[in-house]
Every structure is written in C-alpha cells, then in structure tokens.
Write a structure and sequence with these properties.
Helices cover 43% and strands 20% of the residues. It is α/β, with parallel strands linked by helices. It has a five-stranded parallel β-sheet with strand order 2-1-3-4-5, with helices on both faces. Helix 4 links the parallel strand 4 and strand 5. It is globular, with a radius of gyration of 13 Å.
C-alpha cells in the first residue's frame, strides 16, 4: 500500500484528506506543519506522495518543500501543493521549488484522484 503524507495545520483538512486517501487506497500519515513533516519523512522515507499546504506555523509549505528536495532520499516523493494561494507568482514559486502539481482548496475526491493520476501516483 502506498503512503501519502498530509501536511496541513488544519485538523479538519487533514481529516477530510485522510478519508479521501483511504477511499483511494492509500495509507496516510500526517503532520501539522513543515517541521513535523520533515520528521515524518525521516521516519517514513518510503512516502510516495505528499499533499502539502502552503500557509502553516513553524515551517511553511514552501520552506518544507525546499528542505525536502535537498534530502538524500532513496526516491523523492511526488508533491502536490494544496492551498488557497492561487496567484501565478505562488504557483511558479512552488513549481520552481520542486512541486509536481498544484491544486486549490477546497478540494474534492475527484480533484485529488485526477491530480494524483496526472502525476503518476495512481
């Protein structure tokens, strides 16, 4: 079973994401900010994909993404930014930092399924 890391400071968003991931057949682990997500990646280097929020306390999504891409992992996970930041500047910044795809909140099961299929997770 493939593992997905949900990184969002909202417990509600993580709950919704966990339900969607479960329906799609993924094992889910969670983190409430980027620093906690780095700790999860160190514990679970086999994470296949990450659904990543941008605006979080402690360490935001962009800083996490840059730190993640510098880690010497056996295989870098697919990262889908999932945020309310929808201007072109933020999207370009995320893609340049190593995001594989970008979706807007609120998201649905169909949006997640389509984006994960697009980036080869499903």
């Amino acid at each position: 079973m493939l593992k997905v890391l949900l990184v969002d400071d909202s417990q509600t968003v993580r709950l919704v994401g966990r339900r969607i991931m479960s329906k799609l057949g993924f094992e889910t682990i969670e983190a409430e900010h980027g620093q906690a997500a780095l700790e999860q990646i160190r514990r679970h280097p086999q994470v296949h994909a990450i659904l990543l929020d941008w605006n979080m306390p402690v360490m935001n999504g962009l800083d996490f993404l840059q730190a993640l891409r510098s880690l010497p992992l056996p295989r870098q996970p697919i990262v889908v930014m999932c945020t309310t930041e929808n201007d072109m500047e933020h999207i370009i910044q995320a893609m340049e930092a190593g995001a594989n795809e970008y979706i807007m909140k609120p998201f649905t099961e169909e949006i997640i399924r389509d984006k994960f299929a697009e980036v080869g997770v499903m």
